[in-house]
Amino acid sequence: MHKKQFLNTYKTVDKLNKETQKTAEKPSLYRSKDDERLIKDFHYAKFQKNLHNTQQSNALKALLNKKDWSEEDTETLLAALR
């Protein structure tokens, strides 16, 4: 009986070790370092463009200075951010 419990414990430990190894070895999100750099540069450039557009938008500036917003103002804001 003790020998059987002992072997089952080893099996359990082996299963746990295999599961931790599988979770530790996640595949990379990118195919290569160059792909990673290109994708990150693309997203950063897209962010910079959107930031520039929102900072230069007169409609957004007027909305931010307004105290009471109507439904039309909310729709204008959403349209400007798309």
UniProtKB/TrEMBL annotation:
It comes from the Bacteria. This is Uncharacterized protein. It comes from Marinomonas pontica. The lineage of its organism: Bacteria, Pseudomonadati, Pseudomonadota, Gammaproteobacteria, Oceanospirillales.
